[in-house]
Amino acid sequence: MILCGHRGVASLAPENTLAGLEQAHELGLGWVEIDVQLTRDEKAVVAHDEKVNRCTDGKGKLRNYDWDELRRLDAGSWFDPAFKQEHIPRLRDYLARAQSLGIKVNVELKVYAKDDAGQLCRKVSQLIDKHDFDQKNILFSSFEPDCLRYLQVLQPGIPRALLVERIPDDWQAQLQLLDCTSLHCHHQYLTHDQADTIKGSGYRLHCYTVNNLERAATLKDWGVDMIFTDTPQHYLNAGWSPG
Ligand code: G3P
Ligand code: MG
User: Fold this and answer.
1) 207 CA to middle of ligand 1, Å?
2) Boundaries of each GP-PDE domain copy (predicted)?
3) Domain of 225, in residue numbers
4) Per the confidence metrics, is the pTM higher than 0.85?
5) Which residue is closest in CA terms to ligand 1's atom 2?
6) Residue 179 · residue 160 · CB < 8 Å
7) CA distances (Å), 41 to each of 31, 64, 65, in order?
8) Which of 58, 220, 227, 240 stands 20 to 30 A from 198 (CA)?
């Protein structure tokens, strides 16, 4: 089972920053997960929340910032003053660094109310083409099926995953329609039977956000292929492999 650093390595460095990516590298992880949105001037950036309040010294909706303003925010001090030089990264810079470190990236496309899913996907797709990022190093996921529909057309060579909290009854029809390779679900709601059915149908199964060793061991027994975790160091310290 692969250990994927959630938002970089969210327990050791401010989430969704380049420092988190370096941390993942130091731990020997092969995968990280990040969240992506667009600024007002349509730059794809790595950030989770709709507002910048929690993870920076700024205020208000991320989409109301141009890149030139957003890049000046301190995205590290809230976590620890030692990270005060961290900023919200552009997706292109994040993917470039990940590629040079040999780390694969699950790019989660975040769509908040009034966001344009099509525009987000077009911008992400354009920068992947422009900078020639290797398709093998990227996995797209989204809670928003529209994103997966757009990416199916824009980047058919990059695998896609449907993100859900609870697994819906029509999960298989949705995965088929969106031509997804994996299902990403909240681990708390997953049952052994569901895991058997999903794995038996030939899909990969990935669970978020698993920060408990005992639960992770159960998921591993059930055949879960990857977990997103804020605390990969706990598993590694217990002798697990990063996968
Ligand atoms: O992609 C898995 C997980 O990150 C989904 O939830 O809210 O942490 O982006 P969230
Ligand atoms: Mg996420």
Assistant:
1) 10
2) 1-239
3) 2-49+94-237
4) yes
5) 208
6) yes
7) 29, 9, 8
8) 240
